[in-house]
Design brief:
Number of helices: 12
CATH class of the largest domain: Alpha Beta
Strand content: 15-25%
Radius of gyration: 23 Å
Distance between the termini: 47 Å
Number of domains: 2
Bound molecules: ligand LLP
Helix content: 25-40%
CATH superfamily of the largest domain: Alanine racemase
Largest sheet: 9 strands, parallel
CATH topology of the largest domain: TIM Barrel
C-alpha cells in the first residue's frame, strides 16, 4: 500500500465478520465473545471464524447463484466446514483426495460433491466414483480414456462436466488467473480441443456428459471479466444443447480499507442478466470459495518483539507469519491490522508487521498502522483471513499450525486443534 493510502482511522467494521461489535472495554467481540478472552483461553496464533457469517454467505450463494452451486473447499476446509456447507444447502467442490475424504467424513452426500483436478489420480477417481459424486469435472483427454477403462472394469458410468478454457484473461494476479489459452487447465476453446472433448464424451460409454465448466481466475473484482467470459462460452455452449453450465468461482473480496468488491448477490444478478441476454437456457451455477469464507475470519497474534530502527521503520514481530498466511509472500497480497482490545482507537503508529520465520520476506503487512503504545505481549490481528489462510498453511521451520475456532451466539468450539510438536514429529521415522 502506498503511503498516501495509509489510514490512521480505526479499522472499518466492514472488513470484519457480520457479528463483530465493540464491547464495553472497547474490545472487539465476534459471535458474542471477546477476542482477547478467546486468545487468552486458546492461545495465539488463532483463526477465529464467525459461524453465522459463513452460514449467511452460503445461503446468499444458494439464492443468488442457483441450485447446484458448490462451495470451493480449497478456500477453507475441515470436517465442521463440510458439515456447515452441506447444512446450508450448497454443494461442495473438492480438488484432491484429502478434500474429498474430508467431505465424505463430513457426511456430504455423493450427489452434492463435485470433483476437480487437472491431474486426478486413479485412487481419487475410484473413490469419487464409488462414493457416487455428483459430477467429475474432466480436465484432459487422458482422464476421459481412464474413465472409459474404469467403466470397462466396474460398469460405473461417471457423470461429468468438461472444463474448458475460454481464452479470457481475468484482471487478477497471473498466478491465480486460469481462463487464458496458455493454461494447464481444461480444454481450449480456440484450439478446438473443447469441441473434440464433447465429441469424445459422446462416443465414450464410461461418461455421461451433463455440461461445461469454466473458471477464469480468482480475486476478480471486475464483473466485466465474468461477463466477457460468459459471452465467449455461451456461443460455444448453446448449440451443444447440454443442461448445465458452471461458471466457476473467482469473485474478489476487499482485504483492506482501500478496496471494495461486488457482493455475491450482485455477482449473481450480473450472471443472471448476462444469461438472459445471451439466451442461455441451461442450469447455471457457480463455485464461490473466497467470497464465502474470507471475511468470516480474523487471525489473532501476540506481539513477541518490537524493533525500532531509527530513521528507517519499526518492526513488530508476531508469533505467526507465512506459516499461517502465505498470501503476502506469494502474491504480494495486502492486509491490514488492528488491535482487538482497542478496536475503536485511531491507528497512528506506522510499522511493518512481520512473522517469526528466518526469511526477510516473511511479512504479514508491509505498511501497517496500529494504535499508539502497543507493547510486547499485546494482541494484534489481521481481518479477512478466512480464505486461503489456514488452507495454505505450512509448517515451515517446523512451526506448528494454529488452532481454528468457530464462534456463534456466545459460544466457541475448536474445529481444528492447534498442531503440536508431537504432531510434527509423527511422520518422522526415528
Ligand atoms: N472453482 C475452481 C475450479 C477453482 O480453481 C477455484 C479457485 C474456485 C472455484 C474458487 O475460487 P474463489 O471463489 O475462491 O476465487 N490461493 C489463491 C487462490 C487460488 C484459487 C484457485 N482456484 C489465493 O490465495 O488468492
Amino acid at each position: 500500500m502506498s503511503d498516501e493510502n495509509l489510514t490512521s482511522a480505526p479499522l472499518p467494521m466492514s472488513l470484519l465478520p457480520d457479528s463483530a461489535e465493540v464491547g464495553e472495554r472497547g474490545e472487539l467481540r465476534i459471535g458474542g465473545l471477546a477476542i482477547d478472552e478467546l486468545a487468552a483461553e486458546y492461545g495465539t496464533p488463532l483463526f477465529i471464524y464467525d459461524e453465522d457469517h459463513l452460514r449467511s454467505r452460503c445461503r446468499e450463494a444458494v439464492t443468488a447463484l442457483g441450485e447446484g452451486t458448490a462451495y470451493a473447499s480449497k478456500a477453507f476446509l475441515c470436517v465442521a466446514m463440510a458439515r456447515l456447507v452441506n447444512e446450508e444447502g450448497l454443494h461442495i467442490d473438492v480438488a484432491s483426495h484429502g478434500e474429498l475424504h474430508t467431505a465424505i467424513v463430513g457426511e456430504v452426500p455423493g450427489p452434492n460433491i463435485v470433483l476437480h483436478g487437472n491431474n486426478k489420480s486413479d485412487s481419487e477417481l475410484s473413490l469419487a466414483r464409488s462414493y457416487g459424486v455428483g459430477r467429475v469435472v474432466v480436465d484432459s483427454f487422458d482422464e476421459l480414456d481412464r474413465l472409459r477403462s474404469m467403466h470397462q472394469k466396474d460398469g460405473i458410468v461417471t457423470p461429468v462436466l468438461l472444463r474448458i478454457t475460454p481464452g479470457v484473461e481475468a484482471h487478477t494476479h497471473k498466478f491465480i488467473s486460469t481462463g487464458q489459452n496458455d493454461s494447464k487447465f481444461g480444454f481450449g476453446l480456440e484450439s478446438g480441443a473443447a469441441l473434440e472433448a464433447v465429441e469424445q464424451c459422446r462416443q465414450n460409454p464410461g461418461v455421461e456428459l451433463f455440461g461445461v465448466h469454466y473458471h477464469i481466475g480468482s480475486q476478480v473484482f471486475r464483473v466485466d471479466s465474468f461477463a466477457r467470459a460468459l459471452d465467449v462460452v455461451a456461443r460455444f455452449f448453446e448449440p451443444l444443447e447440454l443442461s448445465e453450465l458452471s461458471v466457476g468461482g473467482g469473485l474478489g473480496v476487499a482485504y483492506t480499507e482501500s478496496q471494495s468488491a461486488p457482493s455475491i448477490t450482485e455477482w449473481g444478478e450480473m450472471l443472471r442478466g448476462a444469461c438472459e441476454s445471451l439466451g442461455v437456457k441451461a442450469r447455471v451455477s457457480a463455485e464461490p470459495g473466497r467470497s464465502i469464507a474470507a471475511q468470516a475470519a480474523i487471525t489473532v497474534y501476540s506481539i513477541g518483539t518490537i524493533k525500532e530502527l531509527p530513521g528507517i521503520r519499526t518492526y513488530v514481530a508476531v508469533d505467526g507469519g507465512f506459516v499461517d498466511n502465505a498470501r503476502p509472500m506469494l502474491y504480494g497480497s495486502e492486509y491490514t491490522t488492528f488491535a482487538p482490545s482497542r478496536i475503536e482507537e485511531s491507528r497512528v503508529v506506522k510499522a511493518r508487521v512481520v512473522g517469526q520465520h528466518c526469511e526477510s520476506s516473511d511479512v504479514i503487512v508491509q505498511e501497517a498502522t496500529l494504535p499508539e503504545g502497543l507493547a510486547v505481549g499485546d494482541l494484534i490481528a489481521t481481518p479477512v483471513t478466512g480464505a486461503y489462510g489456514y488452507s495454505m498453511a505450512s509448517s515451515y521451520n517446523r512451526m506448528p499450525r494454529p488452532a481454528v475456532l468457530f464462534v456463534s451466539k456466545g459460544s466457541a468450539r475448536t474445529v481444528i486443534r492447534r498442531e503440536s510438536v508431537e504432531d510434527l514429529m509423527a511422520l518422522d521415522v526415528q
